[in-house]
Amino acid sequence: MLSKVKHIHKLTNIRRERVLPTEGHVIVRRMQKVTPTDVIVVAPSNPKYILLEIAHGLNVTPARADDLLQRRAGDELAKGDIIAGPVGLFQRVIRAPHSGLVRIAGEGKVLFEISSPLFELHAGMEGTITNIIPERGAIIETRGALIQGVWGNGNITYGVIQPISNNLNQELLAEQINIGFRGAILAAGYCGNPNVLEIAATIPIKGLVLGSISSDVLPTAKSMNYPILVIDGFGTKPMNTAAEEILVANRDRNVALNARVYDPFSGKYPEIIISQPNQPEPNLPIESEPLVSGKRVIIVKGSQSPQIGTIDSIHSRKKVLSSGIKARVADVTFGNEKRATIPLSNVEILME
Amino acid sequence: MDTTTVSAKSLITVDIGNTITRALFFDVVSGRYRFLASASAPTTAAAPLFDVTEGVWRAIEELQRITSRTFYTEKEGMIIPSTQDNQGVDVMVATMSAGKPISVVTVGLLDNVSLLNARHLAQTTYSEVIANISLNDRLTSTERINLLFEKRPDLIIITGGTDKGASKSLLSILESIGLSSFLLDDSLRPHILYTGNEELQEEVKKGLAKISKLHIAPNIQPVLGKENISPAQNVLNEIYKDVRKRQTGGIREVISWTEGNFTSTASALGRVIRFLSGKYEPEKGVMGVDIGSYATVLAVASSGAETLRVFPNLGVGAGSTGVLENSSLEEITRWLPFHIPEQDVRDYINNKSAYPASLPAESDQLEIEIALAKQALRIAVEKTIPSIHKRSSTHKSLMPPIEPFIGSGRILTNAPTRAQSLSILLDGLQPTGVTTLALDQNGILPGLGAASEINPLLTVQVIESNTFLNLGTIIAPYGYARPGTPILRIRVNREDGRTFTREIKYGSLTVLPIELGEKVSLHLRPLHRFDVGMGGPGKSGKVNAVGGSLGIIVDTRGRPLPFSLDPEKNWKRNDTWIKGLLKYE
Known about the structure:
The structure holds two protein chains of two kinds.
Chain A: E1 2-3, E2 5-19, E3 25-26, E4 33-34, E5 39-44, E6 48-53, H1 54-58, H2 62-68, E7 76-77, E8 82-87, E9 92-95, E10 100-106, E11 109-114, E12 118-122, E13 127-133, E14 137-148, E15 151-152, E16 155-163, E17 185-191, H3 194-202, E18 207-213, H4 218-223, E19 228-234, H5 241-249, E20 254-259, E21 271-275, E22 289-290, E23 296-299, E24 308-314, E25 319-320, E26 326-327, E27 329-334, E28 339-343, E29 347-351
Parallel strand pairs in A: 2-29, 16-17, 17-18, 18-19
Antiparallel strand pairs in A: 1-22, 2-14, 3-5, 4-13, 5-12, 6-11, 7-10, 8-9, 10-11, 13-14, 14-21, 15-19, 16-20, 20-21, 23-24, 23-29, 24-27, 25-26, 27-28
Chain B: E1 11-16, E2 20-29, E3 32-42, H1 52-67, E4 72-73, E5 77-78, E6 91-96, E7 102-107, H2 111-122, E8 127-133, H3 141-151, E9 155-158, H4 168-183, E10 191-194, H5 201-208, E11 213-216, H6 230-247, H7 251-257, E12 262-264, H8 265-279, E13 286-291, E14 296-302, E15 305-311, H9 320-326, H10 329-333, H11 342-354, H12 363-388, E16 405-408, H13 410-413, H14 418-429, E17 433-439, H15 445-452, H16 456-464, E18 469-476, E19 486-494, E20 499-505, E21 509-512, E22 519-526, E23 541-546, E24 552-555, H17 567-582
Parallel strand pairs in B: 1-6, 6-12, 7-8, 7-9, 9-10, 10-11, 13-16, 16-17, 18-24
Antiparallel strand pairs in B: 1-2, 2-3, 4-5, 13-14, 14-15, 17-18, 19-20, 19-22, 21-24, 22-23
Helix pairs in contact in B: 3-4, 4-5, 8-15, 12-14, 15-16
């Protein structure tokens, strides 16, 4: 059975595409080294259009209005430049309402694009540009640690990671958040109180990484303007030990925190990247593998989640679970030598 | 009709769902088509593979293992048609529900007429309406252009104007659509489906054909008050296929294996339900229900007319948070048979959405999923009921008389007990009168729908082979009484001449222990002007019925099912009802 993979690597090769959905101007070159704040591509941010009714404005027929047009599609105009006219006793004219570009002109109308400030797409991670995607963006590659999350509030940042303690198995409490964490990305076990997130915003912290989050806290988490990334799921459970180990070992290092909203259709997860370019080059991570004995897995559901264990054996026949459902199961041994029988659907292969 | 070996064509149907890809094999046995085997594998449409073919191969590989027949080899790929040594398969068809819903902007003249038609059309496939444009919205041309440019829909559905009706107003909106399409790159330009006033078709072609992917379908509302969705629905299905080809890896290969016999799962479900409606009592109607991981689909056919509704983000897996967004938590927990802390229910739903393929290992987890399924179905039913009522109906908020109801989806087929499957359908659908609840236990409905176009005989013969499990005959009178008041007398006449009588009180769920497949004659005598579907309130009558796997169930709990303000009472009552059904499992 092919299993989903959860990526929690101490060292791997990371390749990410950073692209705009629309045309833009790529300003990086191949093999250029970038930092998370470097701009990769610029494009007009959400351009606005105005349909100018030239014929109506000049009080002439559309055909006559076309004769009176002084501009053509593609012309760039400053605010107040004449687009059409003059006509009539009072030499009536139509002027550009803003600076911008004529996109279409004819049949008595002009579709005008208002100049808008440029949107800048940042690299979002440290690395090397290995490929340019013309007019859209670039591929960035780096090597380092990678932790894949399951939920993000849509924000992105770059900063120093500071685990709240060496054991990320406890609830993040308001009294633990002090001025010493100002500007840092905090890592903690779980959050069950929305006030804690609000207090963190007042410090302010730069970002927050949690093992799990109580569903009651989600509305507040969504409204925070700093990134919040959840690694394992929802509830009040400690962070999985593989992610905990990486975050604690990288205390005070810079991390790229991309708390994007998980999109099940594109398969893009929120993630943390800790670039370590001086490490020996590892392979690219494998994206899909069959579940077999000996595989390290993370439990994603039920009372054992998010424990990490190793598959001892996969039962050849379906087993009746406590719920009464029949399912393929595996015997999994955890780090503490405890053993449990887990449905195959409730594990993901851990790529470390 | 027998099927000769010469004319027989074996068939594989593949259904690519958001979580599971299922492959089914049909062939001729003893002169008749039969469903022979089913296999499944995880769907690989999303990360990390982004290619559906891997999931399809693995499902077919499993099918090969089960049937000991080779359908493909590394060297030859799919073996189509079958060879003389009985390898391969003659025909392959595929259906698909996986993938992001198509984003749709609906455009019409008036909100409550043409936009409603457009929304109904959009709901016949996996789509999400992201904006509406009409004369009521008071937007200027500039605002409309900016709206369409920002939203960048996959599809714009334009309706409006009866034939020979208003045209000028619609033309002004068309100009905004044309200009916004012009502003986009070729690859981002939306499909445009025009299904409005037929007199404007030439104008529409002139204005939009060069700058968009324009499709024209007959007017969805040729005369005021008469909705004619079917022709446009077929065109929409073609657009769905085209969008999927562009968005999902491997679809082109699947289309080539199936020689184009590829459709949306919802459309195939609609087709087979229409087919079944012709087979049963066409007047009464048939309903098919698919409760999926991401979407819930309802298809109703009666007297040749079909109503198909797809509700994306309303399911028991990836769509479970959609159930939470569409209802309060209390509306979900009211279906539980015991108390589970609200916090745990919310966390479970969010985790299920994050890990949709995961299974409920513990019984409380299963109960949450059953509650989710009931609520998802309830939401879908309440939104669909107004469209399926005949104009003369007096109880427009209740389910009209339909028989049978056929349920599919993993939550129903994987439920540990048939009582749980039945309770999901009974509570979610809340049927009235006398009807049958059946289970598509092998998930063959969409495959049969897709096959019905190219091999209708196969569809007929497989349906006749008792492929659906009869869960039970339901008798559900409606009316008003105090709980405990006798409201129905039933006399059951068995074929061997034995009879027995029951007096049923209001507010109960009673099982009449009739064996699976046993035919009986029922005399129903409602009291206190209750309506049991015999022609009006208080009317008695005789009806023939067949025992299902849970016998015959008399549901006098009320329509719509009432709930107490005290959640404890609801949980206790649900527990009593499910235990009552389980006794007859």
